[in-house]
């Protein structure tokens, strides 16, 4: 990038003199502009070298000050003024302001052809841009060849760092961040934030619409150039492809480990086999809690590229502190999860990960999370409870997908498997069902909501969208059919269980009226 200092050595600047802003001579120039207006906000993009005859500044010291301040705020590279016809001398106040702003103020002591300056510098800038593109192409070829020889993302960043001679910091959202060279800085983010904006640049690295991390480059000795930015962009693209390749390889390895995972879920692996596998994967895993999560995907909504979906889901879970192994079975995805965070917050973290994914893919997916167990050898129990939870949620997707929040429903499922109890429940509720069918009423639903509202009639009526007089009439009918003591503790408990056991037989999908 051409700087103001370099421009001063070109032929049209032989009579030029820097009268202020010496400290800003390293400002980069991207374009040349001739301006003869004071309000320039709509005309400036930054890094221009401005040429003016000063016609707008004649006998207007305050306007001159405002003009210089405005150009500095817009990050203009510098201002060149032709002395003579309109301005004979730059006011001292303007010189002092430019010095304070480190804003180069250059005067031509002789008349110079502005058109000649613009042609000369524009030609130089275009040639330089061509040179930048050649450098970028050369860098791209070299780093692409280099990536084929390495198996570590740190080496990719190190290659860029040495090529640009800048400091590099890779801030990973969930994982170990990298500093190259490895300086002993307590907080890199704070350190980089304190630097001048011209001495640093950052670019996010995205995988599947999620920010995997951010690559920062910075230098305390020089400004970041356009070439630096282009090379940063090219490096981040290369790094993304490298990380993505690793993730796909990881998915492939898991597919090859499918039989091992299935035996693990069924409790058929030995302790030594599991321990060895875990230690090969990640040494710290076995010391934390474990659980199984199942995703049942509707056949019409099964994602075409399931690998991308799994990688994205793995990233969402990893961000929330879960290490994952994935088993793919037909329309099921089974996740073996190791919780690396505190057990007390695992539900909250899990919900965040699932909500992020469901909102992104807009999927009608049935999710079930099994019992949270403390040891990898207890995974079979978590898997079984996840399967049971999935069965329960099939009839009511509004229920929680955590096993331990559905204990009542698990108890009911056990009762439903007892033919004698199930028959007794049906007989008790059948009387209300027959009355509903004959008179087109909703006594079963009314009783269910009444129990849910703990016998509060006002709340029950509101939930059913009926007036209280109608509710009183319905409850009287219930008393006539099943007895007036149905609200006694034992009777009520029995009825509530019977309703849970049989409600789907009688009014699943009925509208509340």
UniProtKB/TrEMBL annotation:
Domain Purine catabolism PurC-like stretches: 6-125
Superkingdom, natural source: Bacteria
Domain PucR C-terminal helix-turn-helix stretches: 443-500
A UniProt-annotated Pfam family: HTH_30
Domain CdaR GGDEF-like: 312-392
PANTHER family named among the record's database cross-references: CARBOHYDRATE DIACID REGULATOR, DNA-BINDING TRANSCRIPTIONAL ACTIVATOR ADER
Family named by the database record: Belongs to the CdaR family.
Protein name in UniProt: PucR family transcriptional regulator ligand-binding domain-containing protein
């Amino acid at each position: 990038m051409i700087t103001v200092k370099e421009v001063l050595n070109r032929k049209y600047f032989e009579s030029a003199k820097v009268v202020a802003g010496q400290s800003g001579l390293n400002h980069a120039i991207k374009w040349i502009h001739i301006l003869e207006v004071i309000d320039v906000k709509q005309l400036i993009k930054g890094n221009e070298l401005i040429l003016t005859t000063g016609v707008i500044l004649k006998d207007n010291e305050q306007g001159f000050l405002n003009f210089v301040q405005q150009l500095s705020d817009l990050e203009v590279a510098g201002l060149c003024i032709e002395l003579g016809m309109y301005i004979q001398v730059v006011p001292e106040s303007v010189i002092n302001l430019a010095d304070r702003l480190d804003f180069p103020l250059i005067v031509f002591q002789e008349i110079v052809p502005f058109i000649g300056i613009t042609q000369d510098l524009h030609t130089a800038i275009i040639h330089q841009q061509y040179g930048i593109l050649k450098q970028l192409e050369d860098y791209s070829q070299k780093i692409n060849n280099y990536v084929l020889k390495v198996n570590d993302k740190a080496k990719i960043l190190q290659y860029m760092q040495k090529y640009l001679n800048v400091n590099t910091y890779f801030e990973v959202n969930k994982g170990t961040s990298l500093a190259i060279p490895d300086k002993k800085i307590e907080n890199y983010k704070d350190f980089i934030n304190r630097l001048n904006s011209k001495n640093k640049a950052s670019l996010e690295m995205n995988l599947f619409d999620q920010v995997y991390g951010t690559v920062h480059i910075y230098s305390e000795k020089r400004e970041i150039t356009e070439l630096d930015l282009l090379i940063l962009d090219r490096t981040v693209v290369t790094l993304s492809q490298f990380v993505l390749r690793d993730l796909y390889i990881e998915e492939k390895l898991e597919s090859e480990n499918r039989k091992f995972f299935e035996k693990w879920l069924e409790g058929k692996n030995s302790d030594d086999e599991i321990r060895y596998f875990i230690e090969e994967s990640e040494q710290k895993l076995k010391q934390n809690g474990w659980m199984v999560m199942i995703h049942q995907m509707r056949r019409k909504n099964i994602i075409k590229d399931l690998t991308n979906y799994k990688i994205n889901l793995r990233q969402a879970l990893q961000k929330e502190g879960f290490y994952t192994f994935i088993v793919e079975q037909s329309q099921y995805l089974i996740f073996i999860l190791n919780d690396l965070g505190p057990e007390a917050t695992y539900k909250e973290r899990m919900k965040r990960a699932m909500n992020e994914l469901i909102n992104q893919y807009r999927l009608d997916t049935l999710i079930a999370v099994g019992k949270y167990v403390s040891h990898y050898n207890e995974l079979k129990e978590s898997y079984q409870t996840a399967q049971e939870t999935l069965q329960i949620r099939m009839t009511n997707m509004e229920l929680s997908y955590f096993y331990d929040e559905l204990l009542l429903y698990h108890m009911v499922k056990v009762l439903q498997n007892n033919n004698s109890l199930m028959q007794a429940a049906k007989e008790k509720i059948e009387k209300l069902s027959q009355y509903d069918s004959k008179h087109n009423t909703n006594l079963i639903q009314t009783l269910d909501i009444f129990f849910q509202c703990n016998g509060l009639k006002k709340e029950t009526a509101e939930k059913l969208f009926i007036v209280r007089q109608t509710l009183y009439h319905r409850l009287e009918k219930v008393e006539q059919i099943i007895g007036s003591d149905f609200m006694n503790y034992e009777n009520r408990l029995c009825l509530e269980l019977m309703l849970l056991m049989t409600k789907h037989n009688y009014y699943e999908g009925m509208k509340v009226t």
